[in-house]
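Structure tokens please, single chain.
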Amino acid sequence: MEGVGTAGGGLWYGLRETAEMIKLQHTVFALPFAVISLVTATGAGWPAPRVWLWVLVAMVAARTAAMTFNRIVDADIDAANPRTAGRALPAGRLSRRFAWVVTVASALVFVAAAGQLNRLCLLLSPAALAVLLGYSFTKRFTPLAHLWLGLALGISPVGAWLAASGRFALPPLVLSGAVMLWVAGFDVIYSLQDEGFDREHGLESIPARLGARRALAVARLLHLGALAGFAAFAVLAGGGPWRLLAVALAGALLAWQHRLVRPGDLSRVDAAFFTANGVLSLAMCVLFLFAKIAPGP
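Here you go.
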């Protein structure tokens, strides 16, 4: 496997480095909302096992293609940034050739998985890839790159709904909008770490454009919009105590996230980014599944 370092032992080392490169653990941000949309789309019933399988394959493949492509496009930037210089590509532990193979193979798997779901999913798969891969260039020309990233993750509920039902509907569009605002908000917070670097190197971000204090205010507004979207989707999905509890818990976690980060104190950004948001997505997914299993009075 050309370009894969040998320090951990061949194939296993390469797989481990690849998993780290694509941040496989961050699948927790989008996949739970795809599950929420999937089970909501089928009404009182449940998706067929093959739908579950191919949605999972499509999600993992799409994210792998997007993240690996992003690492390729940003390799030189990552090498110049002390925070990211240790990543696999700039550090030389994986080669660009290997990363390209992973990107292309993952994109092909995604299209194939979409084709196994239904014709509409197959026809839309190139557009989905364009959104996912296109994000990698946005930081070079617009501070709204955070919203593009939100869109890239936010299309997953629409995709899951189409996989289950084969048609568009209002509820997944509302959920996708909420996810887009939620992701954009926490990406603004995460980008605070690179405020100075982005400004120095001519890269666009809301923190680089507005400064930390105003960027956090923007993140709060985005998260208020996300919470409103989560509430609207819960109502459209049927309401009930479990879904409303999911929205209330999301609100509490978003509030906690904003208490963790202050201008000039980024020591708890990782907790705000991964812990708060990972718990939010997983908890909402579990509670929406409870709503389906035990809808209550």
